[in-house]
Amino acid sequence: MKVPYFDLSRSHQKFIHQAQEAFDGILKSGAFVLGPALKDLEAEFAAYVGTPYALGVGSGTDALTFSLRALGIKKGDEVIVPSFTFIATALAVIHVGATPVFADVEENSFNLDPESVRQALGRKTRAMIPVHLFGQCANMTELMAIAKQKKLKVVEDACQAHGALWAKVMAGAFGNAGCFSFYPTKNLGGIGDGGMVTTADEKLLKRVIQYRNLGKGIDDPFVHDEIGWTSRLDSLQAAFLSIKLKFLDELNRERRAVAELYHKKLAGTQLGLPREVAGAYHVYHLYVVRVPGGKRNALKEHLAAQGIPTMIHYATPVHAQPIMKDHTTRKVKLPVTEKLREEVLTLPLFPGMTEPEVDAVSGAIQRFFGK
After folding, report:
1. Which domain holds residue 138?
2. Mean pLDDT in residue range 7-19
3. Which long-range contacts does 5-9 make (Cβ < 8 Å, 24+ apart)?
4. pLDDT tens track for 58-83
5. Same domain flag for 166 and 268
6. Do the Cβ atoms of 67 and 197 come closer than 8 Å?
7. Measured between alpha carbons, how far is 79 from 102 in angstroms, rounded to an integer?
8. Which residue, of 221, 245, 269, is where some domain finishes?
9. Are residues 281 and 341 in the same domain?
10. Which of 14, 284, 329, 360 lies at a 20 to 30 A Cα distance from 260?
């Protein structure tokens, strides 16, 4: 049985007619950029996350970059980030001229390890970016305590964690800013690129408003008193996301149900299965297992031969990416990251995935291990 790695069409069937009606309305209105649809989404998303403000931008990478810049992070500053993450987290630091310092992650959650953060602190440390990886929040209780003690800015990378909770608080509501991506495969994915900044800081909000729109003045759009970009979340994206946001909790419950099936059906195998740590509500953006004994690549090939695609997140952590050779940084030991890069494998998981499809994946894995 062939199993798709991801199938957007299944979840989109829930609201495709609503989306088409919204698109027709926008096409008739001509309000394609910075129109009412975006203002509506921003208000709805802020209310969902639990922050006073939300601001749509062109991508998750822009959300991270603009947030750092608005917080005054600049050349000469250091920002602590995990190496076991998508490269955009570190690129945002580089985009503002600062230096990423890589910390390790926890074995049980794959998220930023507070103890490693302490080891990474230096006299130039000005901020940290906790990444809520694969749909589970980092330990924001401990990380925010470190930030308060050391007077650090905190920018949450919640690009994989729409709807995830830590201590019953939404991802994106802890730090100075929360950053989200609306790339199509995200838990709240659009029909193209897009991003969002959430914040309680009105000063930060006003700066990001200017950054996303060519540095135009808040009071006079013909005055440019910031260096800006063209990074506006367009009205069609906003309308689609506004509709999909109403289904986000339902779609996340579907992801959790598929993950629970995997937990049960793979419990007897040699795989290390993802765990929902105490205090977290995991929304399973990805279902990432650990394959011991150097068998990861062989299992990947075995599954591919049976029509089951998988991916590896992340065989080359950010600190080992070629681009980082041009950005010297202080070294922190990363034993868990180095171990994970050899073991992790991402299995198919998406809203609407059926139990027979989970059975097909699980059965193929069981056969690989000879059960």
Report:
1. 8-245
2. 95
3. 5/309, 5/310, 5/311, 5/348, 6/185, 6/348, 6/350, 7/350, 7/352, 7/353, 8/184, 8/185, 8/189, 8/350
4. 999 999 999 999 999 999 999 999 99
5. no
6. yes
7. 8
8. 245
9. yes
10. 14
